[in-house]
Structures are given as C-alpha cells and as structure tokens.
Amino acid sequence: MQRRSFVLAALGAAGMLRRAHAVSIADFHIVHPRIRPGAEVHAAFALAVLDVAMKAANATYSIRQADVAMERGRALAELADGGSINLLWTSMDSRAESGLNVVPIPVNRGLIGYRVFVIRKDRQAEFDRVGNLADLRRLTAGQGLGWVDTDILVDAGLKVDTSTTETLFAMTRAGRIDYYPRGVIEAFPELEARSQTEPDLTVEKRLLLKYRSDFLFYVARHSPALAGTIERGFTAAYKNGSYMRLFNSHPYIQQALVQANLRERKVIELDNPYLSAADRKIPEKYWEQWPIVAHDRTA
C-alpha cells in the first residue's frame, strides 16, 4: 500500500492524474511515451524530478502520455523526426544523444549504473563463487532490446542475450539466462510488483556491477526551449536544495538503497565507452559518491 501511495502521489504531482496547469495557460505541453504496466514506480520518480525542475524554472506545463508505449529505439526516432512525443528519460548514450536536445544532468544521480542481478532464488550459491569479471564471463546475462547496457556488457567480454523486459524475467526463471542486471533502484520494485507471478526470483545478495551511467531527459529536436527550461530549472533545483530533498526522501530511491546494502557488495567496475563528450563533463556534484548510504527518512 505504501508503494502504491507514493506512486500515485508522484504521478499526481507531476500532472499524470490531473493536469498540473490548464492547457490554455501552460508555457509547455509535454508528451512522453505511454508508461507500460508495472513501470509506474520508475516513472513516478522521473516525473517528480521533472516537476521539481519546472517549478524551479517558474515554468508552467501540461503533461500527458502518448497513445502507445514505445521501445527505446522508436521513442528516440519520434524525438528526432516524429511529433507524437517531445520528452523521454533514458540512458545516456552518445549515439542516441546526437541531434537531440539533451539535459546534461543525471535524473537519478548515477544509480542506474549501479547494477544488481535478478536471479533464481536457488542459484545464490553459484553467485557466491563469483569473485571477479572473469568468473562472471562464464555466465549469461539478459538485457533489453536496444539498451546501451547490452553494449557495455558485451564490450567487457560478458555473454548477453537480449529480449523484452517481461520475457527477460521469464528467461531468468526458466534458466535460459543466468542473471538479469538492473539498476539498483529498478530491481527491487520490479520484483515486488511481480511477487505473485515470479515468486522464484530474487535480487542476488553480494555482487554489484558499476559503471558510469544514468537516465537523462531527452527532448525533441524541435523543442529546444523546453530542454533549456528543464536544464535551467534542474540547475536551480540543485541550488535551492529541492532536488536533493526529493532524492533523500523519495521511497523509490531510499528503500532501494536500504534493500541493496551496497557497502557489503563485491564491486566489479566496467568502462562505459558510450558516454558522449558532454556526458564525461558532467560535474561530480550531480553524481552520487561511493560508498552510497540510505538516508534516514524518519530523522
């Protein structure tokens, strides 16, 4: 019930359940891909960050979902040449960023690049024997279609099979793949949402893949003013403290950090050669620093 409450609250605050501002007076009309069932918890935080940024920029906006959900490749194509959406939050990737308006501030302070593994519950002992990258290369990971994470893992010499998100959970359960790396803030709520349909899956307890990556706001080619406003507001939200207050109190972030117990994990670091020059210049203040600890929301 708590999970549902914070998802609904965040979606409502960002205009998902009701228009944040009347269309007739809004400075911007934002359209993003339809949120897939089960992905609402991820969208809630990104939309809350967007709302904080737009408020800090003193900008009014309306927001709605497109009629259809989109795979990453189609959504990026729509931003470049279509007209059905003008906003997407997805992983930084120099190939995707080319030609689009990109807000160069990580949405989740880099936590998407902290990858824990969804595995079968009965295979933890097998992963207890993994001590380094060479050991991990003996196993097969699963990743989504068109994800830059697939390329990062393959470049590190890891074996990767690709499929759709729902199929990857089923493939893990069936043993067709050994593990399914997810961002630390993604894995726990996804398994919670599937506790009835995937009771044999869990988050592996002692390993962490770590590389520099996170979601950025990608804005349509024809909407530079929207991108500029989000960036200006995001910067202001850091200065006035509103972004960090959201990050340090939001259940989506803090519950995952408690559950992950990152300080006790064996870290395997990978390079991310797909960062753009702009990505590499993002100031350290926008990245969570290791070791990461959860904040006591009751204090």
TrEMBL record:
SUPFAM superfamilies: Periplasmic binding protein-like II (SSF53850). Residues 1-22 form the signal peptide. Keywords: Signal. This is Amino acid ABC transporter substrate-binding protein.
